[in-house]
Inverse folding.
């Protein structure tokens, strides 16, 4: 099964084109400026000494690399600006200027502790290299220029020698995975086996037992190293690390046709989607270690669901789709796109969430006022930058390259996994989508060059119709896709996906959402905010059988949805005898990803029934 | 208004007599043995050196003191055993043997760091002295022997010199309050003004601004020292510290007729009872600093509600009742007795809870398995001892002296605040209660020597009847009490308090309990356990309008109560479209204080409706 690069796909007008334009015009500039202001670019330029009032950080280089990667994608889709191209060149100049003779590059170690490079498993050196590799691949894809690849190749050769050949580093595999998936991207870009071999070495070594847990603070479990990856069947540990290594595992399973790896990937996916995933596609159930916990443990207010984890999960799902086109993979990726990922960026494009909980209670922020070292609470207001600011450039590069998720194909079949207004030509195939999706469910496709077209029918869609070249086609989806035999030449297919609001329930084993209801509309999870509905949403019970009202185009082209509900009436004091006084009310709901764009206010997804 | 000591009151058969017998036969021996096994008595005996595999702790002396205090109370009510009397003498011998020439006594500092006594505000030296003072008062009350009072008097003189006169200590007021209320007890026992003056000095100085916050870990807020106590209007900081200083404030307000202190106590009480108290009477909303948080922040699973805090609250409430006999004070004390305090001790008398949450989810205990330093989670199984084991001896001394809460009187009126089968004679008055309360609501009182009898009608009681000397009396309670003029000589009053199960709602501002219902019966809060009802109680919705069934005597003489409910049916996976499948079910509920006596199992107080 072949992937189709976003390079080959032009998003025309519509939802994602607008998002890419926002990333190009606002987001990346804002991120870049914040990274300049917070000295990340100073550190990268090695402009630091002990007298300064800030210190470099082991993973700051990755922020610079992701800015470069996102810039390349935008430039490649004519969404970029001149400063981005100049920045890429500056970054390569700086990298080259400060790269060690043996190829090593890490501004933190070079500046603060050069004698101890490759000694601390948790210090993100290989994680940073991974992001440099992805930036290099992006630059080559877009500019057709191998300069950055040549620079990272020297560093990779050093890593091959130190880690793979000499075993002379202080640890065997990275504490924070990322380089594995990056090496596989570089392998597929260049065809050089050494990259594949190093990625496979890291995948095979992790959890093999050869590896001591070199971390003082984290368990082997935390970084997916408690057993060989091929043996693993549950999502575990730090959610971003997990998602990144699962992504590499899926690619390696495909490239090496490694059945054991594929089996592990499939079991882990099943564990996540059936036991450990929020309705938004968010993963990572607790901020304690930013980690997965146990089955059915899905607190709403306490949800961690880091933006980067949802992005990493979507990267994994794209690889799984390429391994095997099951509708559930693309369904879940779509759940991430429109909910757990987009919630990470504000509508103005310049403010972000690192955590994306399913409930916000601003009034509880002051609860630890007698504790001098209070535990971290979820942010209730979006931030322009974070001390650990991995998410903003991650969401920028992801949206800029969203086209990568649309299509795969083999000799005869073209798979359409996602619906976005776009035009594409690749490998002798042409496909054009005319649609307002996700604003509505009508999609007109023009396809040529494939013998068969496989269209994903989203799991949320109960009723759909297909008209092929003017004739109504009756067919049922198999494993999430309907298959249409195509004529030689141009084929016109009109797909209509019925999009109506629906109530969703949660498995009763989930304490926090049992006996509750959440509203969904097409691929969107909805939520209610205090700014529309007043505070104390916990005192509201929705009535799923009652009629609802759609307020068209109220939310950036999407409807606001007003549902019937009941609210407990308040009273003085804390406790009172029944009967409980409840009054009928309506609750206005908006797409979840749009929450916290109108000031600090309460927010809730799951409602009592 | 005069207090009536438990010494003057003999509990006859019934609920509390049985509890005292259990304390005397099982509990105190178990606690003592645990404290021996954990080296608390070795440390007290100064049998320690650096080579040993354990270290003394700054507050261990208080554990020994509370064991002595509880032993005295039991001995005083013929509930004691010979070993307890011997232990009291041994303890005094040891104290005398290791007391410094200047009166100082603290095994931790004497053994580990004598040069730094009185330098660390958080190291509980004065807290320990407070408990020694209470033990001394108890010993004098029971044995009529001033030996322990003489020993602590020398220590108090040192404290007066160092703290009150020379200001030569490293801090001005104790980090953990307790000595203030103890000094006031000693003042009322001996009449010596110096004890009253020292207590008043500590109360006046706390938060006066003269005092630097000497604590590196805790804020002034944490120990009620951010503003003068007379200015305080909200419960704040560490809940046990708070309850102990409020107790001292209420006594000092009475002794010195200090209106400003009384006003602070009343405002703080109103804040707790109307904003910050669990249905069980538990206080201390978070384990973070074991502290109060903010209004309406009452998480059920996250409730901290330390047993000692509920006991401290009951001590405060007894003082408030003496200041002014408002029914709400005794109502709230009763709520503590039968729920948040008794829940701290197992039915077998030898196992304890330090925290008393309103929900237990044992299945979530493993959630932090990828975190090497996981946050503390509530214990799901009762323990024989804790590293910090203040609660077990505290509950022992409290139950042994529960009679203290029953009565107050002035020249003409005898107030009956609580109903317990008992006989008492004091200050020319005699009163006998024949009752099975709290097993039922029928109470026969025989009273002589008072002109008026004031009977508390519990706030939970809707219907009651009174027959005085054979004649039905019609009267309505005023501020929680009905007042009956008494004849000279013997008066017989038959009070009947109707006791029926009732559903209670919570203020909708409380996120975790809004739109929910809790079952109460008389003074008891009820809960449901997984062992009776299966797991996933969060998926249950109770039907408060439906009939209930009483299972008489099922729970140590109290009824089990079975209510009608609905339960969400389970399904594969995490999320599913509505309609939700619910099945009718029944939920068997037991008194909250009896939870976790049948193995580790889920528990819930507040149910969806």
């Amino acid at each position: 099964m072949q992937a189709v690069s976003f390079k080959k796909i032009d998003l025309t007008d519509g939802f994602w084109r607008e998002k890419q334009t926002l990333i190009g015009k606002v987001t990346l500039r804002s991120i870049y400026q914040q990274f300049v202001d917070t000295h990340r670019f100073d550190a990268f330029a090695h402009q630091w000494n002990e007298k300064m009032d800030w210190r470099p950080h082991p993973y700051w280089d990755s922020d610079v690399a992701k800015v470069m990667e996102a810039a390349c994608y935008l430039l490649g889709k004519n969404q970029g600006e001149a400063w981005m191209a100049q920045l890429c060149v500056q970054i390569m100049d700086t990298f080259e200027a400060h790269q060690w003779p043996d190829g090593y590059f890490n501004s933190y170690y070079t500046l603060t502790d050069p004698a101890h490079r490759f000694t601390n498993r948790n210090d993100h050196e290989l994680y940073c290299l991974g992001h440099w590799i992805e930036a290099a691949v992006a630059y080559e894809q877009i500019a057709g220029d191998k300069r950055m690849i040549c620079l990272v190749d020297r560093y990779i050769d050093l890593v091959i020698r130190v880690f793979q050949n000499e075993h002379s580093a202080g640890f065997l595999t990275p504490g924070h995975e990322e380089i594995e998936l990056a090496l596989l991207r570089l392998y597929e870009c260049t065809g050089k086996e050494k990259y594949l071999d190093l990625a496979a070495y890291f995948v095979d070594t992790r959890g093999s037992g050869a590896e001591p847990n070199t971390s003082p603070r984290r368990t082997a479990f935390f970084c997916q190293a408690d057993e060989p990856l091929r043996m693993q069947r549950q999502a575990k540990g730090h959610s971003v690390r997990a998602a990144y290594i699962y992504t590499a595992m899926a690619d390696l399973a495909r490239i090496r046709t490694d059945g054991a790896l594929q089996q592990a990937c499939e079991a882990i996916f099943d564990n996540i989607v059936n036991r450990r995933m929020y309705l938004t596609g968010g993963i990572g159930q607790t901020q304690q270690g930013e980690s997965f916990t146990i089955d059915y443990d899905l607190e709403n207010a306490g949800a961690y669901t880091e933006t980067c984890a949802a992005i990493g999960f979507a990267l994994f799902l794209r690889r799984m789709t390429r391994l095997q086109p099951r509708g559930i993979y693309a369904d879940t990726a779509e759940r991430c796109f429109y909910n757990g990922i987009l919630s990470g960026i504000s509508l103005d494009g310049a403010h972000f969430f690192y955590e994306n909980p399913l409930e916000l209670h601003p009034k509880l922020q002051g609860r630890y006022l007698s504790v001098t070292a209070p535990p971290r609470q979820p942010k209730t207001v979006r931030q322009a930058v974070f001390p650990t600011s991995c998410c903003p450039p991650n969401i920028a590069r992801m949206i800029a390259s969203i086209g990568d998720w649309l299509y795969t194909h083999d000799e005869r079949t073209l798979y359409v996994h996602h619906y976005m207004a776009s035009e594409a030509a690749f490998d002798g195939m042409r496909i054009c989508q005319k649609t307002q999706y996700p604003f509505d469910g009508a999609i007109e496709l023009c396809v040529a060059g494939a013998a068969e077209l496989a269209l994903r029918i989203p799991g949320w869609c109960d009723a759909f119709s297909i008209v092929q070249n003017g004739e109504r086609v009756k067919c049922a989806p198999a494993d999430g896709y309907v298959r249409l035999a195509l004529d030689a030449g141009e084929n016109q297919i009109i797909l209509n996906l019925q999009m109506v609001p629906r109530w969703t329930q949660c498995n009763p084993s989930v304490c926090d959402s049992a006996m509750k209801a959440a509203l969904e509309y097409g691929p969107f999870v909805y939520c209610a905010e205090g700014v529309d509905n007043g505070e104390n949403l916990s005192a509201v019970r929705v009535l799923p059988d009652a009629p609802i009202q759609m307020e068209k185009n109220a939310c950036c082209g999407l409807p606001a949805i007003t549902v019937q509900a009941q609210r407990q009436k308040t009273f003085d004091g804390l406790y009172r005898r029944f009967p409980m006084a409840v009054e009928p009310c309506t609750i206005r709901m908006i797409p979840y990803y749009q929450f916290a764009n109108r000031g600090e206010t309460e927010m809730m997804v799951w409602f009592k029934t």
The two ends of chain B are 45 Å apart (CA to CA).
